[in-house]
Amino acid sequence: MTVTLSDVAARARVSPATVSRVLNGNYPVAASTRERVLKAVEELDYVLNGPASSLAAATSDLVGVLVNDIADPFFGIMASAAQSAIGEGASGRAGGEKLAVVCNTGGSPERELTYLTLLQRQRAAAVILMGGSLEDPAHLAATAAKLSRMAEAGTRVVLCGRPPVPGDAHTAALVFDNRAGGRRLTRHLLGLGHTRIGYVAGPADRTTTRHRLEGHREALAAAGVAEGPTVHGLYDRASGHAAVAELLARDPGLTAIVAANDTVALGVCAALRERGLSIPGDLSVAGFDDLPFSVDAVPALTTVRLPLHDSGVRAGRLAMGTEEAPAGGTEPVPGELVVRDSTAAPRG
Amino acid sequence: MTVTLSDVAARARVSPATVSRVLNGNYPVAASTRERVLKAVEELDYVLNGPASSLAAATSDLVGVLVNDIADPFFGIMASAAQSAIGEGASGRAGGEKLAVVCNTGGSPERELTYLTLLQRQRAAAVILMGGSLEDPAHLAATAAKLSRMAEAGTRVVLCGRPPVPGDAHTAALVFDNRAGGRRLTRHLLGLGHTRIGYVAGPADRTTTRHRLEGHREALAAAGVAEGPTVHGLYDRASGHAAVAELLARDPGLTAIVAANDTVALGVCAALRERGLSIPGDLSVAGFDDLPFSVDAVPALTTVRLPLHDSGVRAGRLAMGTEEAPAGGTEPVPGELVVRDSTAAPRG
DNA sequence: TCTACGGCAGAAAGCGCTTTCTATCGTCGC
DNA sequence: GCGACGATAGAAAGCGCTTTCTGCCGTAGA
Predict the structure, then answer these.
(1) B280: cis peptide before it, omega within 30°?
(2) What positions does the domain HTH lacI-type occupy (chains A, B) (predicted)?
(3) Cα–Cα–Cα angle for A43, A44, A49, nearest 5°?
(4) DSSP 3-state assignment of B160?
(5) Which one of A150, B153, B241, B277 is CB 3.0 to 4.6 Å from A155, fit for a cystine?
């Protein structure tokens, strides 16, 4: 039925061992023999049995990329970048060829753990966890435990956009400086003269949410400005849309609204428009991430640009072992303030 | 080092066979024995060796989802839906537990084939190909050959948004009626009174591109209206942006522009705005897909809504074997015309 | 009481590959 | 011209699991 290594060996008149060596290319094989084997492979249309190979070699060529929401371009861009970095890693002859697969956790801790177990089962070569994590201590501990077991078993673990696990030396981490980004954004608004700023935050129990919010508060505190109303929601348009009513109810005098990310900001803009309020005339709005559509929003969104693509590529390289983890701790990747048309000095 | 089945067996004082049976749950095991085994599994923190298991059982729990561009919400939404349908399929005790992984081909035929081979290596349980395909005959043949080999080997193959391979009975296919959608959209424009309509198409060699464009032409032909200028580009914002100059150069009297999809339409709108043209005052613009941001564009985009989420879910179910493929050929999934503010009657 | 049978558990044979260890051959140095 | 060594190829022992084939034991039917 299926063609096996021995079939190829028989046809090439060599031993299975030789075929294996030709395919893996880590042992000297005479050029003539190699050609004969390759020809047989070709003729038989042979495909290596992955499980058998992984079993015997105790490793696999799978790299798992875990993301919170694959439908969100924030993750899509990073995952895409990582995946191409990993795919290209297959530079040399053989061996480097890895299969990067992305797994969608939907932000659910259980699914995150399930995927990790599944990846562990498969003896994945590496795992990349993208995006902020839940701050529930139980979940954190469970994840950390699982990751360190995997690391022990030889799986490379890379964190991208998620705080490093304290004390885990096995893990490479790339973290975004969400706090500084939040600070910078709010400082910009303060600089324009805003003093009544509403905030639409993400889910309360996520690191990303907390850090951005903390940055916002730090900027406020530094300027001696009182904190405005804050509403928590999901990282989606609907949350932004819904938050506006609440924010305005809590402080009708708001002159600016900061959103947890660009998608939320879009929802905020929509709601504002529906109320007949102009942006930035009546209220300024700012987002975070600088997703591709943000420049096309009307008005174009002021936001904080995160190097999503670059970070994805770096995460991919770290996972491949092509690039070494920055020694001596990871300094966070900064975000860049991008000022566009959705923010302006408050009226009057 | 690593805990194996035998370790568990030893601790539970049963044979490895029994442990395997408990874990797979497809053979009668006395309740007391089962509990003993489960307890040992727990205590030893045992994780099944996937490769070994796949090797012995000649199947794996991997489901591959191939997409053209994971950073594009069009694919993100479908992939996400498919993945959750597959994840939930793990309803019953054991066995149903599948790992859905998404693979980003970047629209490259080679990478598509590479991923397929890798998935074939892993003896994937199923493969879902999402989105239109390249129309190159060589590639089509290669893909079809590979898919049918995989199908023979027991991998379920599902096509979602891609035309079925003629004569391949193994393959379930879900196709979007891009042609009808294109027709409907252009008819809408014609109905408003437009007769000089530009078209920004996707890459020329993709099925999706061709079908949408054909629908457009059919509508034009049916109304006896001459075809306007057409420009091909990628399915991204930049292409839409760049196309405007060319379109307007070819016919400065254009009153409407139809874009290959919403992302392209956004680029078109941006370029128009930069030229000081108002939408829909000076020109109407229409997109395709109805991605989440389209409703928030200003003006909100007229477009054709495709049931991305539903289709993804169905594709996932088909891959799981939970849902049977529609017998007697697949009738295409229709798109729904969504009229919003970016289209209006041409001026004067 | 004896036989038959159903319900469980174990033994053991692989699944298809990798990899150590061993064997062979040709060639080089003296 | 002889022993040794480098370069290749083969034999065979697993990797950790699944599953068929047996076997045991207890109960039910006669």
Answers:
(1) yes
(2) 3-57
(3) 135
(4) strand
(5) A150
pLDDT band at A95 (very low <50, low <70, confident <90, very high): very low
Which nucleotide comes closest to A36 if you measure CA to C1'? D9
Range scoring the smallest mean pLDDT among A49-58, A82-91, A159-168, B75-84: A82-91
Q: How many angstroms separate the CA atoms of B18 and B11, rounded?
A: 12
Residue B223: domain span: 178-306
CATH code of the domain in which B135 resides: 3.40.50.2300
- Residue B92 is predicted with a pLDDT of 38
Q: For chain A, give the percent of residues with pLDDT over 90.
A: 78
> Cβ of A292 and B104 within 8 Å?
no
Indicate if A108 and A172 belong to the same structural domain: yes
Out of B96-110, B151-165, B176-190, B324-338, give the one with best mean pLDDT. Answer: B176-190
The pLDDT score that the predictor gives to residue B95 is: 47
Strand D: list positions under 7 Å from protein Cβ: 7-12, 14-20
Footprint of strand C on the protein (CB under 7 A): A 2, 4-6, 16-17, 20-21, 23-24, 26-27, 48-49, 52-53, 55-57; B 13-18, 28-30, 32-33, 52, 55-56, 58
**Residue B318 and residue B174 in contact, taking contact as beta carbons nearer than 8 Å:** yes
Q: Are residues B281 and B294 in the same domain?
A: yes
